[in-house]
Amino acid sequence: MQAWLVHGGALESARAEWPDAPAPWLDLSTGINPVPWPVERAGPIDWRRLPDETALAGLEAAAARAFGVAPEWVCALPGSEIGLRLLGAMGLAEPVRHQAPGYRTHAEAFAGSMPFAADALAGEGARGGTVLLANPSNPDGVLHDPAALADLARPLAERGGRLIVDEAFADAVPGASLLPWLARGEAPGAIVLRSFGKMFGLAGVRLGFVVAAPDVLAGLRTRLGSWPVSAAAIAIGTVAYADEPWREATRARLAQDCERLEGVLRAHGLAPEGACPLFRLVQVENAGALFARLAARGILTRPFDYAPGWLRIGLPGDAEALARLDRALAHG
């Protein structure tokens, strides 16, 4: 299977397939903020020492303040995908169901997990077990009302089950998070995963979090062992989560930039879908042909093997990148 059908960011595979494409490549295959948080604000990083437990606790406290929850409800991870796979190994209540379409990892992390459609979500609480979804979803950008998710968590908890919500993109969507309900005790048993790399544009830091009751986190910490995240992740994440002015300004910029992206897509007869400002999904008769045409012009987007009519297009980082996409869509 071609690498670009598995994950975004498969630039090396694309370069090998289209060696004559103009450089530099414009990578629109991921849902990552193209204007990252300035890492120099974190200051120097001491690479000579193992990550410090006190500093790790400081990172979790900084993230907790940003999330609006108590620090003891936050566990740092080397990426939220690791958290999903660890949860899948913890023997959570069955049956397990995941929303589809969605992340490939959601189907892989829980053995025997069965898919359900987004419009069938309301009925999942009565079935008990474990329900897994992303909010906003990926790749279609569907956004569930967090109040409705809290209403789903309660009947699941009454039956010994859990709701797991992957909020990898929620930082970029004000009002999307379930965490206020979790903090008030109104989403019992729920587990929320958060990603640092998407909103802050620093996927290479490999930092994520599980937000859940302390008894759940105790099992995760045992599995993670000592030094679960790097000294760099601790230093960068601690300062970045305290940088509320940057986060507020970035949310506003992302919304404006996404409006501009939508304008370009509509100008070429495409109908953008989704509620996450970091990407838009378009449906065309042959998305593979459009993907290849853009790739030949050095623009990488995200096709899907299970949906040959879908193409996800990430947010260009500046006016020049948006103009390049505009020109590529206009020719061919």
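^ that was protein a. below is b, sequence first then the tokens
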Amino acid sequence: MEKGIRGGNLNPSLLSLLKCPKTGESLFIESPEYLENKIKSGYLVSEISKNKYEIRNFIPRFVPQTNYADNFGFQWNFFRKTQLDSYSGHKVSTERFWKATGWPPEKMKDAWVLDIGCGSGRFAEVALSSGCNLIALDYSNAVEACYENLKHHSNLHIVQGNVYELPFANETFHYIYSLGVLQHTPDVKKAFLSIPFKLKSGGEVAVDYYEKTWKSFLLPKFWLRFITKRIAKDRLFSILQITVPILLPVSIFLGAIPLIGNLLKRLIPVANYKGILPLNQQQLFEWALLDTFDWLSPEYDNPQNENTARKWMEEAKLSEIKIHRVSHLVANGKKEK
């Protein structure tokens, strides 16, 4: 069993932060196989209980290979680059990240930051630009897409793990964010309340949720999901590849009708960003297909309201609480010193 480790995604600084998610014990490397001075495969083993976690394709894995988030793994590996600002040529993710977090980039430099639900790395790419040490975590195999997109960043570490059992020591991170993720967990409150334990004293958190309003429940996705979430993900995606090119022009046409257009287009079950995001025609279609699948495929979709978001922040004993809106309902807070 190896205690030493060299280079790559699993370097000594990351290993010192990782803990067994079930017992909190430190972890050692067992049976490592290297490629270009990086640990490509092997196991992380807990000191006493001997719980064993696989390292596969350079990434530590603390969860089953198949789980309720498989649809996200499917979508982010298919749309690996779609929402990266470096690929789209726009600053959609950049603007959303900085508006949602409110964190000064210069203060993030060299700090340890955790991205919960990294997907293919759209917000990780933005956070990395600050010079922080970023751990990008996802429950699904979207970690594969994130690794392929961002592996050239020496300050990036990728982990496949569960928000309910975060495999890190308590009081590890200066900043933690989770954008577009928590509403897709089985128990949103439990997911959120697991986060502050991992913050350092004085550390800051930013999370967002789909907002629960009477208008949101009129969206077609909520009455369609009863059916669509039960359809095999590859089959659902094939259906959407046929229907989205038909529905998107209809939604765009209805949206252009004076006075009532915005209401009418909400009746069409397709993500329509015409006039909302600075996307060209091809990007409008690609984002429509991606986000319509994102609407209809998740096992869980649990929007929250402002009062609940604030109550959870208070229950976590966070201070400087701020509830605002940036695409979604955003909650910010700080762990008291």
